[in-house]
Amino acid sequence: MGTFKRKSEREQRIDSISDSLGELRDGLTKSRLLKVGLIAGGLAGLTAGSAGISSLRRRNEGHDS
To answer: Which residues contact 7 (CB under 8 A, 6 or more apart)?
Structure first.
């Protein structure tokens, strides 16, 4: 029978993080990834559109003065 070796605090943290990442990965299905991608893409589009509109407004304000 082997001897029992207690893990250091650092090793315990690494194991805990690895377990958490494994559970997260297992919980992500293709449909969830697709939904997350669509939401992220939509937010990026809205942000870019808003920045574009702000840029046009600033440009037009400069010509009106």
So the answer is: 15
